[in-house]
Hints:
It is built from 14 helices and no strands. The two termini are 13 Å apart. It has a single domain (2-404), classed as MFS general substrate transporter like domains (Growth Hormone, Chain: A, Up-down Bundle), CATH 1.20.1250.20. It has helices spanning 2-40, 45-51, 53-73, 75-94, 102-134, 141-197, 219-239, 242-249, 255-274, 276-279, 287-309, 314-342, 349-398, 408-412.
Amino acid sequence: MQAGNEVVNRRNYIVVTSAYWGFTLTDGALRMLVLLHFAQLGYSPVRLAMLFLFYEFFGIVTNLFGGWLASRLGLRVTLLAGLALQVAALGMLALLNPAWSAGLAVGYVMAAQALSGIAKDLTKMSSKSAIKVLVPAGEAGRGALFRWVAILTGSKNALKGVGFFLGGFLLSVAGFAGALSVMAGALLVVLVAAWAGLPAAMGKAKQKVGWGDLFAKSRAVNVLSAARFFLFGARDIWFVVGVPVFLSASLGWSGARVGAFMACWVIGYGIVQSAAPAVLRGRAPAGGVAAGLAFGLAGIAAAVPLALAAGAPAGGVIVGGLAVFGAVFALNSAVHSYLILDYTDGDKVALNVGFYYMANAGGRLVGCLLSGALFQVGGLAGCLWGTFAFALAAAVIALALPRHAAHPEKLAAGGVKLDAGD
């Protein structure tokens, strides 16, 4: 019976991962499509950041209530809802009229991006939570959980990088509306496959979940969520607007070259994330690892503007600095993604993961806004000093995380016993 359950869990894991991969390709492509299309139309850095404002803002709301909804209705419902909303957002953007005024176009795109933001966080929360309820009971619990989280998260980010390249390619061969129509059709196929392949009760809480459970979190979950806020804010402060606009405006890179570079960066970032268990020698990490990696990020963020001020070649410093930053950030993110699952019980996983990703979305929102504002005021160096401040805050907060395994008794028992919900 146990062997049969493990086969079913692995099959469900493959279905969930495949759906998440399909969504991720469209998410990365959509971001690059919107950024490049409106940059070509002459939009300022602040206005470009505004296009993604609702995308990030509605992610905060979605993660909070999405986790509660998933606990009541099951992860299958929220995963399918995320895929369906992304199809709707892509179709809506395909109908954008070039003859509209700039104000109307920006408002329309922000509304479509709101749908896409809701879709992204429903899909991400559902997929990441599903790992906790699908880890095979026969494997060594925490080590297996770390490996499965790293594989899903790393492969997702690698595919998001492929999506950046895909967005630039489709924009050049099919145009803005044509590219969006192609992606909407492909994702609709993924939606149908996920609807047919996943069990209805996957991830549903055994006990009724009330409104009070939305904020009833453990200290470890609260501290990790705060660190996550500043970690992702640190990345987006220089990544969302600062880097692509600098490469294009200051270094004279073409849109295709910028898209290819950003794609390669995210793909490399995803590969490092997937390899995190090997880099950390197979050991499930505790809070001290997250703090140490965040201090490393702060040091990298400070080193880049100092090198630029010293007269080092801008192209080499930015490309090299971004590569090192991405590798350390990937390890830090993988550790966070593991810890949130380690800090929560399987029955409440959607609630805690939703709360944690609400903080993640909040950091991305603030980082997105600061990326445009700091670049306009202080250039890329201004963005990097903002990144330094946020990474330092993430490191200091992470010092308060537990220094030992959250569930050592599960290791002693030889595995984590979790209900697959089917």
